[in-house]
Structures are given as structure tokens and as C-alpha cells.
Amino acid sequence: MTDSANSSNDTPSTRPMMEVTVFRGDDSAGSYQRFDVPREDNQTILDVVTWIQRHADPSLTYRFACRVGMCGSCAMMVNGKPRWTCRTHVKRVLIGNRIEIAPLRNLPVIKDLATDMTEFFEKWDRAEGKFHPTLTRNDDIVPVNPESAERQAASAGIECINCGVCYAACDTVEKNPAYLGPAALNRAWTLINDERDGGREVRLKAVSGDGGCHNCHSQQGCLSYCPNELNPTLSIAGLKRTTAVAALKGEI
Q1: Rounded-to-integer distance, Cα 240 and Cα 251, Å
Q2: Is residue 93 located within the same domain as residue 155?
Q3: 141 and 87 in one domain?
Q4: DSSP E strands, 26-151
Q5: Domain of 219: which CATH number?
Q6: Are residues 8 and 96 in the same domain?
Q7: Burial of 22 (0-12, 13-18, 19+ CB in 10 A)
Q8: What confidence tens digit (pLDDT) does each residue in 77-95 have?
Q9: In this predicted model, what pLDDT tens digit does every residue of 23-59 receive, in sequence order?
Q10: Of 195, 172, 174, nearest to 185 (Cα)?
Q11: Do 39 and 135 belong together in one domain?
Q12: What is the CB-side half-sphere exposure of residue 210 using CA atoms within 13 A?
């Protein structure tokens, strides 16, 4: 791969530099380390992290895959805000020629900028964020009307790719570790509105209990930072209404 942060023919000493502080360590012990990194015209935060790992400290640990804004695996905190680092250009976030880079908050830190996503996906499972089929492969495929209100509600939230940005942005997760989080609840809402799914009752029970949808304070941090411009707050509001009605009817 080409390192765009090192693409210039100039030596680092002749190029403009910026101050980058990076979290180092893990959950049990960590601190920030300063690096002086060359500035480039079209440089992303992921370019900066890659330059540090390749030219300053090869022990720096971080996670990335596609580098083109598709997979979401490079998500980190940049100046205190969760972002996909491959999409975030330095010139947009540079403050006084300084940048601070840290691992996603609300998740355990494995090392440096890499977080442990286990609890994120465990909550996805606890929210019954999995499809419950009602047919077998031997049955005919039932057509789905793309214009129905249910299908449109489901389609509005299906582009989540589990990057964890909304989870890191969520203050409710920070204050209440049992909270299922925006991504898991958004997924539950898409399935509630999928007419092919047979897990409605068990899913409503899962998302209405402790740590469920009614813990959301509707502050919309998830909406503000979602790189795919989804609105988990709207999905969670739908779950609140649906679970309340189901409770009144004695369904859950």
C-alpha cells in the first residue's frame, strides 16, 4: 500500500510538521505519546497513524482494512469525537496544528488504538439482532412490497456496518454499561419491521428489559456521528412505541 503521508519527495525535516498525540497502552495502564508528523495536502487521519507506525514506532497497534470508507474498522476517537479515520481529512480536524487520536470510547482497549468489540456484538445478540426465519429453503420466496411502511422503516436502518461509532458516541452507554446501545437496537427495529421474520415477541421482550430501548435519552449522538447517516434514535423511538403498545396488550 502507498503511504500518502510519506508521498512527498521532500524529507520530513523540510516539510511542515504537526503535533500528534496518540493513546498508548491498554485499559489497565495508558498514556499519550507525542509524535511530530509531516503534513500533506490530502492527508487522512489513517494516513497519519500509518506514518507513525511505519516511520516512528512500529509497535503502534491499530485496526484498519479497506482504507476507502467502506468497512468502518478504522474507527477511532479524533480530538474527542468518533470518526472513520480513513474518511477524516487532517485539514478538517486540525486544531492549532495539533491532533489527538485515541481508541473508541465505551469499549475495552486491547492495545493502543485497537478496541475489543466483543461486548458490542454480545449486545447485538442480546437484542435479538438476528433473523428468525419463518420459511425453509424449500418454500417459495414471498415477495416484499418495497413501498409498505414496514419495509421503508426497515430499509432506513439496514446500512449499519457495525463500526461502533454510534456506540462510542453514546453517553447512555457511558453511564449505563448494561445499555444495549444504538447499533443493536437499530438492528432490532429493522427486524421488527421485516415481515419475513418470526422473532417479534422474543425480540420485543429483549429490547424492553433492563438495558433496553427505554434507557435511551434521545440525545442523538448516534445520529450526529453515524458515517452512513443513519438515525438510530428514530429506530429506538419506534421500539419504545412498539414495546409500550405490546405491554398494554399483554403481549410481553
Answers
A1: 14
A2: no
A3: no
A4: 30-38, 75-78, 81-84, 98-102, 109-111, 114-115
A5: 1.10.1060.10
A6: yes
A7: buried
A8: 999 999 999 999 999 999 9
A9: 999 988 899 999 999 999 999 999 999 999 999 999 9
A10: 172
A11: no
A12: 3
- Ramachandran category for residue 10: left, alpha or beta (phi over 0 → left; psi -120 to 50 → alpha): beta
**Backbone Cα Rg of the chain:** 21
- The residue range of the domain holding 188 is 118-248
pLDDT range class, residue 142, cuts 50, 70, 90: confident
Position 13 confidence tier, pLDDT thresholds 50, 70, 90: low
How many structural domains compose the chain?
Answer: 2
Residue type, 152: Q
CA distance 172 to 211: 10
Output the CA torsion sign for 67, 70, 75, 78. positive
* Alpha helices (H) in the chain, listed in sequence order: 45-51, 90-93, 118-126, 149-155, 165-169, 171-175, 182-192, 200-208, 221-225, 232-248
Q: CB of 86 within 8 A of CB of 38?
A: no
* Domain shared by 145 and 198, yes or no: yes
- Say if residue 17 is in the same domain as residue 110: yes
Q: Are 207 and 143 in contact, with CB atoms under 8 Å apart? A: no
The Cα 65–Cα 114 span in angstroms is: 13
Same domain (yes/no): 149, 217? yes
Beta strand 75-78 pairing with 17-25: unpaired
